[in-house]
Amino acid sequence: MTALHDDLGHPVPLPHPPRRVVSLVPSLTEALAVTVPDRLVGATDWCTHPADLDVARVRGTKNPSLAAVRELAPDLVVANQEENRELDVRRLREAGIPVWVTRIETLDDAFASMRRLLVDVLQVPAPAWLTAAEQAWAPPPGRGPRVAVAIWRDPWMWVGARTFTGDLLARLGCTNAVTAERYPQADPAAVDAELVLLPDEPYVFTADDGPEAFPGRATALVSGRQLTWYGPSLATARADLLDAVAGQSRMPRW
Question: Which of 59, 67, 145, 205 fits a disulfide with 210 by CB distance 3.0 to 4.6 angstroms?
Answer without folding.
Answer: 205
